[in-house]
Amino acid sequence: MTKLPMQLQRELERPKTSTPPEWCPGSVTKVWLLQAPQLDGCPNCGGSGRLYAFYSVSGPHPHATPNLKVTSKWVEDGWYYGESRSYPCPECNQDESAWYQAGATKSIYSE
User: Fold this and answer.
1) Is residue 91 part of a domain?
2) Helix and strand counts by DSSP (H, E) for the chain
3) Strand order in the sheet with 50-61
4) Beta strands 30-34; 71-75: pairing state
5) Beta bridge partners of 55
6) In a domain, 111, yes or no
7) Residue 15 per-residue DSSP state
8) In the structure, what pLDDT confidence band is assigned to residue 111 with cuts at 50, 70 and 90?
9) What is the per-residue DSSP string for 37-84?
10) Phi-psi region for residue 48, left (φ > 0), alpha (ψ -120 to 50) or beta?
11) Which one of 29, 39, 102, 109 has the minimum C-beta count within 10 Å?
12) pLDDT (tens digit per residue) in 83-110
C-alpha cells in the first residue's frame, strides 16, 4: 500500500475540497492516484521521489479535448479533463535528477 502525503490522501477521499485548475471555473469531481514507472529505489514512489495524481473537472467524455490548456486522460470509462499534480514522496523525498534524466518533465504543481 502506498503511503500518501496528508493533503493527497484528503483529496482522494474528498475530491470536491481540492483546488480546481486555474483555467477551470468549476470544481474537481474525481482524483486518481497515478502509477509511476518503477525505477530503482523507493517501493512507495518507484524511485521517482514524487507521487502523481490526476484531478478531473469533467468526464467521462467520448474524445480527448482539443484544448491545449486542458489535460485529457483516459481513465476507466472514458476521457476526463483536468490536470496532473505531483507531491513529494513521504517515504524517501529523494533527489529527482534520475527521474528527469529518464525523460519525465516537471509538474505544474508541487507542494
Assistant:
1) yes
2) 2, 4
3) 30-34, 50-61, 78-88, 71-75
4) unpaired
5) 31, 83
6) no
7) G
8) very low
9) P--SS-TTTTTSSEEEEEEEEEEEESS----TTSEEEEETTEEEEEEE
10) alpha
11) 102
12) 888 888 888 875 554 444 444 444 433 3
Q: Are strands 71-75 and 50-61 parallel, antiparallel or unpaired?
A: unpaired
Q: Report the chain's mean pLDDT, rounded to a whole number.
A: 76
Answer whether residue 74 is part of any domain: yes
Q: Which residues of 50-77 are buried (b: 16+ CB within 10 A; e: fewer)?
A: bbbbbbbbbbeeeeeeeeeebbbbebee
Res 99: pLDDT: 47
DSSP for residue 25: S
d(CA 33, CA 12) in angstroms, rounded, equals 8
Q: Does 1 map to a domain?
A: no
Find the domain containing 68 and state its range. 6-101
Q: How far is CA 39 from the centre of its chain?
A: 18
User: What is the number of structural domains in the chain?
Assistant: 1
